[in-house]
Amino acid sequence: MADALAYGVKVTGCTVHLIDAGIDTGPILAQQAVPVLDGDDEETLHERIKVVERRLLVEVVAAVATSGVTWIGRKATIG
């Protein structure tokens, strides 16, 4: 969040991905954009991202539990 604010980006977000041997390198299952609003600081932006990432995680876990996931190389597909 600090980088997003420091660079003045207008959009940041969250990612749900599979876990592999690296750090944040697993195949992506879902992403959601979160706008950076005028006046945001790290706390306000972080709180807004947490709301989105919690909802997204529940949706992805439910979809994977219902439909499964196919993981080939760097690409993961639900269903």
From TrEMBL:
<dbReference type="Pfam" id="PF00551">
    <property type="entry name" value="Formyl_trans_N"/>
</dbReference>
<keyword id="KW-0808">Transferase</keyword>
<dbReference type="InterPro" id="IPR036477">
    <property type="entry name" value="Formyl_transf_N_sf"/>
</dbReference>
<feature type="domain" description="Formyl transferase N-terminal">
    <location>
        <begin position="3"/>
        <end position="61"/>
    </location>
</feature>
<dbReference type="InterPro" id="IPR002376">
    <property type="entry name" value="Formyl_transf_N"/>
</dbReference>
<keyword id="KW-0658">Purine biosynthesis</keyword>
<dbReference type="GO" id="GO:0005829">
    <property type="term" value="C:cytosol"/>
</dbReference>
<protein>
    <recommendedName>
        <fullName>phosphoribosylglycinamide formyltransferase 1</fullName>
        <ecNumber>2.1.2.2</ecNumber>
    </recommendedName>
</protein>
<dbReference type="GO" id="GO:0004644">
    <property type="term" value="F:phosphoribosylglycinamide formyltransferase activity"/>
</dbReference>
<comment type="pathway">
    <text>Purine metabolism; IMP biosynthesis via de novo pathway; N(2)-formyl-N(1)-(5-phospho-D-ribosyl)glycinamide from N(1)-(5-phospho-D-ribosyl)glycinamide (10-formyl THF route): step 1/1.</text>
</comment>
<dbReference type="GO" id="GO:0006189">
    <property type="term" value="P:'de novo' IMP biosynthetic process"/>
</dbReference>
